[in-house]
Predict the 3D structure of the following.
Amino acid sequence: MSTAAKNSIETRNLHVGYRQKNSVDLIQQNISIQFVAGEFVSILGKNGIGKSTLLRTLTGVQDAISGDVIINGRNSNSYDFKELSTIISLVLTERLPDSQLTVFELVALGRQPYTNWVGKLEKNDVAKIKWALEQTETAALAHRYFHELSDGQLQRVFIARALAQDTQIIMLDEPTAHLDMHHTIKIFQLLKKLSQETNKTIIMTTHEVNLAISSADQLILLTEKEVAAGKKEALIASNAFDHLFSSEIINFNATLEQFIVTQKQ
Amino acid sequence: MKQKSYTKQFSALFCVLILLVLINISFGSVSIPFHEILDILSGGNSSKSSWDLIILHFRLPKAITAVLVGSGLAIAGLLMQTLFRNPLAGPFVLGISSGASLGVAILLLGSGIFGGVLATIAFSSWGLAIASSIGAGLVMLAVLVTATKVRNTMSILIIGLMFGTVTAAIISILTFFSDAEKIQQFVFWGFGSLGNLSWNEVLIFFIIYLIAVLNVFQIIKPLNAFLLGENYSKSLGINIKKSRNIILLITSLLTGVITAFAGPIAFIGLAVPHITKLVFKTSDHKILLPAVAIIGGITLLFCDVIAQLPTSEFTLPINAITSLFGAPVVIWLLVRKKKIYL
C-alpha cells in the first residue's frame, strides 16, 4: 500500500442504485470523488436524488451497481464487516428499538470492534468513551437512559458512539433532520471541530444547504444531470449550485453564497 | 463514571433460588419432616428408607428439572425478544413450542400409524428430545424467514400464531388416525410434568441444555449490538447471519428438549425476561442472561410448589399453573401504559 493511499476514501466511476430481480434501478452514475483526511464533507441534493443511496454505498451497507469505492488503496468489497468496523463508523436516521440502554452503554457499544468476546471494557476503552462523551458535551448525561433524551441530545450521543468506535471516517445520514436551528448549528459546529481536531474524514448528507455551503470543506452536489464535487469557491465559479434545485422558488445568490427564496414582484 | 454493579441483586436471587429448591423438595403428597430432608440431602440416612427414595429419586430430579426448564425457557425467550426486536416474542407465542409438540406428536402418534423405526425411536429419550428440537427448529426457521420480509412487530406475532395453529391442526389430524392408547399417552404428555424423569433422563436433558447454554456465551456481544438495530450491528462488525443461526440453534435446542421432557409450557419464556428487566432495569445481556436464568428457575420452582397443592395428594398440570401465572403478567405489561423495553 502506498503512503498516498493511507487515510483516504475515493470513488471511481461509481454507479449507485437498487438491483431489482431482473432490472437495475440506477439512481446516480459516474461518481468519481476523493475524500481527504480531516475533511468535513456535505452531500447535498433534493429529496429522492440519491444522497442516502450514495452514503449507504460508501459505507458498504449497500452494494454498488458498478464502479469502485476505494478505501486506503483497497476496494471496499475486499473488506469484511469486521475490518470495516475499525475504519468507518455511522450515524443513521433510524430509530433505535426501545431498550433500557444508558447513554454510557450506548456509547460503549462503539468499542465492540476492540473488546474481548464478552465485550469487557478495558482502561483504554473507558478512556475513549469518556473522551467521546466530553467531545460531544454529553458526559453529564452518561447515566441517563437514552430514551429519556431530547432529539438534540440523542444526536450528540450517536456522534459520541461513532467517535468511540475510533474510525478514520465517520458517515452521517441527515444528522440534523429533526433538530431546531440552535441544535442544528450546534451539530454542524461539533462536526466541523471534530474534523479539524481529530483529522477524521466526516461525510454527511444534509438538507441544510446554506449551513453546509458556509462550513463544509468539500460539497457534493447531486442533480439529475451530474454529480459536482469540490470546494465552495470552485462550485460557485462553475455555477454548479444553479442546478441543485431546478425550481423557481429558490435561487442561489453567488454574492451572499446562500440560497434565497425568490421574491415575486 | 463507574459501571453499575449488580452483585446485591444476584446474591439475593441466588439465595431465593436455593431456598425455593429446599421448599420445593419439602412439599409433596408424602409429608417428610424438614430436618429429615436435610439429612438425606447431606448424604445421611433418614428414619424411613422410602423417604430416601422419594427425595433422591423423585423430588430432587424434579426440582433440578424445574430449574432447567424455567431457566432454559427464559433464556430462549430473551434471545427471541432481542433477535426479533419484539418485546412480546417468546417460544410459546411464536409457535416454537407448538413446533416442538409437533415433533413429539409425530413420534408418539406416528409410531402407531407408520410403525417400524419410529416405534423404536419413540421410546428413547434421545429420540423424543431430537424430534422435538427439530420441530422447534423448523418453526423458528420459518418465523425467521418471514420476519426478514415483514418488519412489523405485530405481523411477526400473528405469523407465529398462525404457525402455532397449523401445527395444532396437524397434531389433531394425527390424533384422529391414532388409537386410544397412543392418544392417551400424548394427552398426558401435553399436560406437562416436571416429575417422571429418571436420573438418566435428567442427565440427557442436562447435556442438551448445556450444549445450548454454552453457545450463549459467543453471542453476548451480538445480542447487545442488536439493541441498536441491524445496520448499526453490521457497522460494528457483527456477523448477523452467523449470530442469527446460533440463536436459532440455541432456541430450538432449549425449547425442543424442554418440551420433550416437560411438555409444552406456556408464558415462562415471555414473562420472565420482562420481570427480570423490571428488576434489573438494564438491557445489557451480560447481566440479563444470568438474571433471566435464575429468575426463570425460581419462577418454575414456585409454580411447581403451587401445582403440588401442598398437603394434598393431587398434582395439577404444571402447564396450567404457568399459564395462570404468566397470562396476567402479560396483560399487566400491556395495560400499564408504560413502554415495554427490550
Summary: The longest strand of chain A covers residues 9-19. Chain A touches chain B at residues 59, 61, 81-86, 88-90, 92, 94, 96-101, 104-106, 109-110, 112-113, 115, 117-119, 121, 126, 130, 139, 142, 147, 165 (CB under 8 Å).
